Amino acid sequence: MNKQIISFVLLLLFSCLVHGEDPYLTFEWKVTYGTISPLGVPQQVILINGQFPGPKINCTSNNNIVVNVINQLDEPFLITWKGIQQRKNSWQDGTLGTNCPIPPGKNFTYHFQVKDQIGSYYYHPTTALHRAVGGYGPITIYSRALIPVPFDTPADDFTVLVSDWYTNSHKSLKGLLDTGRSLGRPDGIVINGKSGKGDGKDEPMFTMVKGKTYRFRFCNVGMKDTINVRIQGHTMKLVEMEGSHTVQNLYELLDIHLGQCLSVLITADQNPKDYFIVATSRFTKESRVATATIRYANGKGPASPLEKKEAPEGWEWSLNQFNSFRWNLTASSARPNPQGSYHYGQINITRTIRLVSTAGVVNGKHRYAINGVSHTDPETPIKLAQYYGVADKVFKYGLCKDEYIPPSGNEVITIAPNVVNVTYRNFVEIILENHEKSVQSWHLDGFNFFAVAIAPGRWKPEMRQNYNLLDAVSRSTIQVYPNSWAAIITTLDKAGLWNLRSNALEKQYLGHQLYFSVNAPNTSLKDEYNMPDNDILCGIIKDLPHPKPYSI
């Protein structure tokens, strides 16, 4: 750790002692290339401190997190903290709309607080196609000691990161998209960076003791496919989804869509031997399957052979499962008051934004668009352009309208930064409409929303009568099935710039994203922090004088 970081950490610790701040956790991460074989074929991956997946961040609600990221790659690099709400602090969000990437050989120190959050999340790269070859890892936020949790403390807490996987390098994959081609089908599935063969010869990934109960946190950190998970011979009790405690229903199988995280409890109540965690691709012509081995302590015998049919067919089953997920109204989340004390269904909607996803070809290359606009990242990050007062030189507001009007002829796609102005603290309804033949998954930075409905067809205002306005799960990702729509509602109560993006890497890279610019009536430290002193500058603002900071 260099002298600058040591001084920074000491300053933080001193501040914590003097001002009574919440505890600080500090990390130093070196981002490098390395060669490993996730699917049995040697390939270049992105490591953090020599690890793939990267180091786990274990923290408690309200902790301050300080991560010094040292980029030792040959390309600019940036990390986002998926699901972390960055209260008053979109400066730390780590997207190309909020931050300049870290140049090769340089570092950037993130500093954010997991304010009023618990749950299961992960981090991942946002530059180029780096996410396709690693650089991701888990984030676990535990409840404070005084906040009750609606289940007994498990014997252990395991993280399971499932992902589809390509054996090509990230540069090769990027080259495909940059020349108008598609990534194609993934080559396989990995579980925590490995792909078991299911032949009984793999080393165990987890160990359980008979009679004890364990928490398994699943996240789909992949690029293209929904992944169905199950644990041989064991029932899964759903207890948490992206920071919300859920009604504790039992499941044999669970669909986990791109970008989604959830927690289940597993009781080791079977004969002591080996069992497989089975991860199977969904909605694909040919299923891809990976396994990881769970071993009972002192158990005898290999896991049973896999059955031929490992996951249900079609998306109707998946939709029915979505409808079974319910918010636990009596449980506390990060705060002592019950989740159900927030009556979201009684709040009047102040704005409806209907976002229709389309696709087309522009200049011979495939692009994806939202309401006719295919996002592209400007050289100067949008947030910095706003802060420095040069937004008009970088992007235009309002290209994406609240209501999509299809063109009378061929689809017209505009390639530009896609920025939507929204009013601070408005309670908005966002409709995500999928006109494609594949399942979509969307994530909103900075906020949790209530996923109140998913249904086939086209959305109409009268569909609101079927919304779940009582116990929809508060979360930050939502899937949209083919030729269907999803409705989410949320209060935009955090000033800043927040990314809504497809979790499908190819679609996101080719334009399936936008930014909500949430502006408070007055620029004040009550609503948003100043730009960090260590922020990296790039583009047209690189040599401009520093703007006057916000004040109270």
Automatic annotation (TrEMBL):
Signal peptide start and end residues: 1-20
Pfam families membership: Cu-oxidase, Cu-oxidase_2, Cu-oxidase_3
InterPro entries: Cu-oxidase-like_N, Cu-oxidase_2nd, Cu-oxidase_C, Cu-oxidase_fam, Cupredoxin
UniProt cross-references to Gene3D superfamilies, sorted A to Z: Cupredoxins - blue copper proteins
Organism this protein belongs to: Solanum stoloniferum
Domain Plastocyanin-like: 31-144, 157-298, 382-521
Alphabetical UniProt keywords: Glycoprotein, Signal
Name of protein: L-ascorbate oxidase homolog
Family: Belongs to the multicopper oxidase family.
PROSITE patterns: PROKAR_LIPOPROTEIN
